[in-house]
Write a structure and sequence with these properties.
Oligomer: single chain
Helix content: 55-70%
Number of domains: 1
Number of helices: 5
CATH superfamily: lambda repressor-like DNA-binding domains
Shape: globular
């Protein structure tokens, strides 16, 4: 059975991808929290999310200079 693009996107764990990109950029969770306008504890909550609101994902994409919606 062939896997479609939409099926592949659903298997992405966005929180893990955000964490990986954050580490790749060398940004601390505290700095990231300030730049996206949330608390440090909320950043750790973001890391656990398989899916997230596109508005938040767009904000994260801007801060980390990576388009999580189109490039994953």
């Amino acid at each position: 059975m062939k896997t479609t693009a939409s099926q592949r996107k659903k298997s992405i764990h966005y929180g893990q991808e955000v964490r990986a990109k954050l580490e790749e950029r060398g940004m601390t969770p505290t700095e990231f929290a300030k730049r996206i306008g949330c608390s440090r504890s909320n950043v750790y909550s973001i890391f656990t999310r398989e899916a997230m609101d596109t508005g938040l994902l767009n904000k994260i994409s801007d801060v980390l200079d990576f388009d999580f919606i189109h490039d994953l």
